[in-house]
Design a protein that fits this description.
single chain; about 475 residues; Beta-lactamase; 6-stranded mixed sheet; 10 helices; carboxypeptidase; transmembrane; D-alanyl-D-alanine carboxypeptidase
Length: about 475
Amino acid sequence: MHLKNPFKRKATFQMTFRPAYTSVKEKKKRPLFLRIMIWTLLAILVLGTSGFFGLAFYANRDQIQASGKPLDGSAMTLSVKARSALVIDANTGQVLGQKNPDQQIGIASQSKMLTAYAILQGIDNGDYQWTTPVTISKSSDWSEKDTAMYAHLDIHAGQTLTIKELFTAMFTTSANDASLALADFAKKKSETQQEFLERWSKKLGLKDTVWYNAAGQVNDDAFDYQVKSAKKTAENKATPTDLAMLAYQIIKDYPDVKGYYEKRGLVYSPNGDETATKIKLTEGGKFDQEIKGQLNNPKNLTIEGLKTGSTPKSGGGLTGLVKDQDGHEFITVVSGAGKYTDSKERYQVTLDAVNQVLDNYRNQTVEAGQSLAGQKVTKNAWAKGGQVQLITKEKRTYWLKKSAKGSVTFAKVKRYNSQSLSDDDVVVSVAPNLKSSYLSGVSSSEKNVPLTNKEMVEQLDDNGFRKNWLQFYQ
């Protein structure tokens, strides 16, 4: 028997009504040609915008282009009667002539240039003043030593001289006691004199040097300053390149040192007592009286300094500063020029080296305030009108071999978006197209020609910059 479930809901009759009108329209695809046209227009818009700004970026990038073929200004090999020699332009560091420039040599009293630079830096930094008194110690009292063997002052332990007096004595008479006393005064309490010299050598970037004492004495002749761990024959050493770098830094940072060689007499007063003033002939005075007239000097070169030095092993040496009749200055280094007791030969070899350079090179000088070829008008989006005129800010002289044809050309600045629009600031420096070498410590700004604005230019705000940046002219 089949019984029905009494709780099951009975099925109901359902009807579905579709309205005769609805507001929802059926979605229809656009025609293919219309879709292609829309996407094509969008692509053109994107590519056009990207192209426009890409072109703007390309046209307004910093543009410095090399110009012309490099001319030969490479260093010549010097043929002089010395073991080593070097001639460089004193203002740019361009190496002009060389002979064994990287051969390490004994430098003797030329070592005193390093102490001189350290003292000048201390004056600059405010660590002491020219008038600061320095007490002569028992170790730096060389007053009883043979003056024919060891240059020194007539000053004794316990007495004082000012830094100025000691510096002048060290630089003009090569006084050993003055150099030792200054190095002791300037060094850190925790370091030896040798460590003091090594620290400053490293700071100046001298690459191949050895140091023992500030006077430049052979270790066995340094007395209380002898380095016990070193051989008795040990001596301060450097390459001609190192000495040239040291001289270059001194002259660049402290050009007044050139005046020291003009002094013909050293005047100093122990303890500041003017009634006990002493006078000593300088190296410049001795050169004038005893050597100058004996030299063969057909081009009338002027020797302006800097520092002599010689040892029995290294022979006569001189780190010099020489000026020609047109005012060009050269830093020179010679070593092994005659016997160490000879005073004349080192000067003659120095003149011979510079004469050889002048016989084989011609110079091209760019004066300050000059408009270089190709630099007449430069685009600059920061400037009112979008253009500036660049001129040279400083004088530069370049040397090229006489066999090289034509003149030195320079990199051309087409655009440089600098915010420095004053006529005092260096906007950019351009390199000469010259095959040449320079001292390793010389920066590109010293080798190249610095350019500045011809006149003060009104600087635009960001809106003005963007407006100029979007203009493609010139």
